[in-house]
Every structure is written in C-alpha cells, then in structure tokens.
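Working notes for the structural subgroup meeting. M.R. asked for a predicted model of this chain before we commit to crystallization trials. I am recording the input and output together here so anyone reviewing the notebook later can reproduce the run.

Input as submitted:
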Amino acid sequence: MAKTMTFAVMHFSIAFSVAYIITGSVLVGGLVAIVEPAINTVAFYFHEIVWNKVQQAGVDSELSKTIQSAGENYALSSM
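Returned structure, recorded in token form:
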C-alpha cells in the first residue's frame, strides 16, 4: 500500500507541475492533478475489461506476447 500511495503522490505532483509550468496557473495545475488521474483510472478500468475479454477468447497474439516481454524486461532492468 505504501508503494501505491507514493506512486499516487508522484503522479499528482507530476500532473500539477506540468500543467502549472505550461499555464502558470495554480488553479489549472490543481484541476489537472485531480482530473487527469481520475480519467486515467476510469480508462484503465475499461482497458482491463477489454484485455480480459481478449485473453478469455484465447487470443494470444504476438503483440500481447511482445508487450508482456517488454514489461518483464523493464521490470528486470529497473531493479
């Protein structure tokens, strides 16, 4: 849970910082820091639904294998 919380703080901080740097507005930075992660959360939910349907259909394409391999390689390289 600590890792999730630190990631959330990092995500909000980056979203705020980028929006603030681009606009110069604390209000816009704050709104983007709240709205962007919320939209990403909803999008991720639907992404998971589609991803699970693809897997249940037995469609293990080369793309999904490549993505999985890339994720594993990234996880190993970031250790």
